[in-house]
Amino acid sequence: MSVPAVTVRIDATLPEAARRMARHGVKRLPVVDAQPG
């Protein structure tokens, strides 16, 4: 995994997620929720 981890918020659109993956050169993108727990 990259450090720091490259993630996307749960409310991100598919194009936003794809751009983030391309920008950082990653093949997997964990989806995170804003609320811990």
UniProtKB/TrEMBL annotation:
Superkingdom classification of source: Bacteria
Pfam families registered for this protein in UniProt: CBS
Membrane-spanning parts: none
Keyword Membrane: no
Keyword annotations from UniProtKB, A to Z: CBS domain
SUPFAM superfamilies: CBS-domain pair
Domain CBS: 1-37
InterPro entries hit by this protein: CBS_dom, CBS_dom_sf
Protein name per UniProt: CBS domain-containing protein
Annotated source species: Streptomyces chiangmaiensis
